[in-house]
Design goal:
With 214 residues, the chain is of the alpha/beta class. 45% of the residues are buried. It has one domain: 3-Layer(aba) Sandwich (Rossmann fold). It has nine helices and six strands.
């Protein structure tokens, strides 16, 4: 009997200072340890160089991250069995860069190629009431339009009692953009493992949509 191909997880994020990037990296490592094939992609800036230059360190951080993480494509989304989206909270909304990527998935919506794939989300904010729960829930809206199967974390692991919310992992990083805490990393690691396990069960049962070749 031929063993099934590994579950495929796509992690798409935007990060200006590196906090969301750290969570994305933890999710990817956890998913790989669970046996998944993982792609990590960073949504690119939509602001021009002049606007970026007005925020200290923005251009430098973007250049560093873009050298490591390719930009997400339509093919990445169609390749995946599950997609985990990560974003900072900007005025209670997802980053424009991530929304821009989602807005470009119109052809996939029209063809229904993402219907049945799993979707989840995680977020960061500077302050405890900075909108992580709101922005996580808002990311589920385009997933619903795409026909994805939304997978919240719930309180399915003790890690979720220490960080994040039942909607998804999160981190509060303060005005100084502190690195996510170990508790925050544990929450997003659990989220990734949970998505891999559920997607893998659907793949094994033959319930996952047609998969593109690796």
């Amino acid at each position: 009997m031929t063993a099934p191909d590994p579950t495929r997880l796509l992690v798409v994020f935007h990060s200006r200072t590196g906090s969301v990037e750290t969570l994305a990296g933890a999710a990817a490592r956890s998913a790989r340890e669970a046996g998944a094939e993982v792609r990590v992609r960073r949504a690119r800036e939509v602001a021009g160089p002049d606007a970026m230059a007005k925020v200290e360190g923005w251009a430098e951080s973007a250049a560093r991250q873009n050298a490591i993480h390719p930009a997400p494509t339509h093919e990445d989304a169609e390749w995946a069995d599950a997609i985990l989206f990560g974003t900072p909270s900007y005025f209670g909304a997802m980053a424009t860069e991530l929304k821009n990527y989602l807005d470009q998935l119109g052809p996939q919506w029209k063809k229904g190629t993402l219907a049945g794939k799993l979707g989840g989300a995680f977020a960061t904010a500077s302050w405890p009431h900075g909108g992580t729960e709101v922005v996580t829930l808002s990311m589920y809206v385009p997933m619903a339009h795409l026909g994805m199967v939304i997978v919240p974390t719930g309180y399915t692991d003790e890690a979720m009692l220490e960080a994040g919310s039942p909607y998804g992992a999160s981190a509060i990083v303060g005005s100084d953009k502190r690195p996510p805490r170990p508790e925050d990393l544990a929450a997003v690691e659990h989220q990734a493992r949970r998505m891999v396990a559920i997607a893998g069960a659907l793949v094994t049962a033959g319930e996952m949509p047609s998969r593109r070749p690796s």
